[in-house]
Amino acid sequence: MPDPPGVTMRLGLLLRQSHRRAAGALADVLSELDLTNRHFGVLLILDRDGVSTQRDLIRETGSDKAGMVRTVEELEKRGYLTRSTSAFDRRVADLTLTEPGQAVFDQARRGAAKTAEALFNTFDQEELAALEDLLTRFLAATGPDE
């Protein structure tokens, strides 16, 4: 059954507006810690994975190479992550969180959780689960690079 005219365009606009609202609210909270959304994304992935590379961070965040280089350098200068030569490929640097990096991420995560609660307080748990399922299916159907 074909979509009613304009539904796809409205959904795209709603997704964009929703992202801008959520990203703006998160940026406000993170600014208190002198972090950006990009910093938070890197810290989130390093906390989740334990170790990563710039190439993997670029792929997972959708960042450009120059932006990721700057972000990693900023986090390293602040003492939030370390680089070490990969055991598998000497040309690649493994990135890991430091103790101060874990501490600032834990603060940022608490702020992000409060922000998420405020953004999603009109949804019940069933609705949130349905939204997460729909977005997960959307991303799986469209692929990581689309």
What attributes characterize this protein structure?
146 residues; mainly alpha; Arc Repressor Mutant, subunit A; two-stranded antiparallel sheet; 6 helices; MarR family transcriptional regulator; DNA-binding transcription factor activity
Task: Please write out the topology.
Blueprint: H1 7-31, H2 37-49, H3 54-61, H4 65-77, E1 81-85, E2 93-97, H5 99-119, H6 125-142
Antiparallel strand pairs: 1-2
Short description:
This protein is mostly helical. The protein contains 6 helices and 2 strands.
Can you characterise this structure?
The chain is mostly helical and 146 residues long. It has a single domain, classed as Arc Repressor Mutant, subunit A (Orthogonal Bundle), CATH 1.10.10.10. Helices cover 67% and strands 7% of the residues. It contains 6 helices and 2 strands; from the N terminus they run ααααββαα. It has helices spanning 7-31, 37-49, 54-61, 65-77, 99-119, 125-142; strands at 81-85, 93-97. A two-stranded antiparallel ribbon has the order 1-2. A hairpin with a 7-residue loop joins strand 1 (81-85) and strand 2 (93-97). The longest helix has 25 residues, at 7-31. It is globular and about 55 Å long. The model has no long low-confidence stretch (mean pLDDT 91). InterPro entries: HTH_MarR-typ, MarR/SlyA-like, WH-like_DNA-bd_sf, WH_DNA-bd_sf. GO terms for molecular function: DNA-binding transcription factor activity.
